[in-house]
Amino acid sequence: MTDTQTLDLDAVGAYLKDHLDGFDGPLEATKFETGQSNPTFLLKTPARDYVLRRKPPGVLLKSAHAVDREFRVQKALAGTDVPVAAMHLLCEDDGVIGSAFYVMDHVPGRNFKDPVMEGETNATRTAVIDEMNRVLAALHMVDIDAVGLSDYGPEGSYYERQISRWSRQYRASETEAVPQMNRLMELLVERMPEDDGQRTLVHGDYRIDNMIFDAESADCRAVLDWELSTIGHPYADLASVIMQWQMPQGGMGRGLAGVDRAELGLPSDEAFVAAYCERRGLPGIENFGFYLSFCFFRMGAILQGVLKRALDGNASNPERAMRLGGFVPVFAESGIAALKG
């Protein structure tokens, strides 16, 4: 089994000493439990802390685990209204630690595992979700030409491209037949709306646990995990938030199903979408069920890849990866339900 749990600290330390201004050891590393796709480590030195994010070693699906893209997009967003960690360096030489990696600032603050935000006040919950909404709208209003990202994704229909891509990825990692996924892929192709011309930067996995908030306020200090980012259609990000909220509360779901949102100071799906539309100056969103269904499909395909890596011995957290893989039929069924409205 390929080891994704540790780093060669001697190799990392030597590389950083030669390539990172101000770096000085000794170096300690601790692996984050999160970061299923690309193993992520906290690097501690006497002077400051960094974060290293690497490709998993081993045979990987084509175009997956693109740490070079993660590095590029976050570097481009520095100075915009989208908060990101400061990028330091990208190493694409597999000979250093066995796979490509990048190093960025460690951003201290609060990270909420799910939107319930257990133990927080209603005022905090309301403010954090509103900040999440603000950052999402800001992301979709980034001038991609001005920040040098106009070529970060191809032209043409985002959903046609994405459905084709994730269908191929799903087939490449398929371990057994899942009839619900087969049906969902057919339905998405049949019901794809016409391209409305919107072309923005999209995160691809926008949710509360991929954000760092200030320790004393609701201000977002960094959006993390940009592996799925591209130039595409903004409603996919918006729908991914709503998709997450439709999952069961706590544990593996980390959603809001069955939660009395008003009692906790949390907005309804409709209120969140309306606030987003107001920030972007949009009259509303037609055919939202399609965008929601697409997000369920994409997540199902991602989880299938996580399961395949676990079976192949390349998962960052094998036990959790096996559990996540069991949700593929659930996401497919939810995608079909979303299309039915």
TrEMBL record:
Entries under CDD domains matching the protein: ACAD10_11_N-like
Keyword Transferase carried by entry: yes
Origin superkingdom: Bacteria
Pfam families xrefs: APH
Signal peptide: none
Transmembrane segments: none
Stored SUPFAM superfamilies: Protein kinase-like (PK-like)
Name the record gives this protein: Phosphotransferase family protein
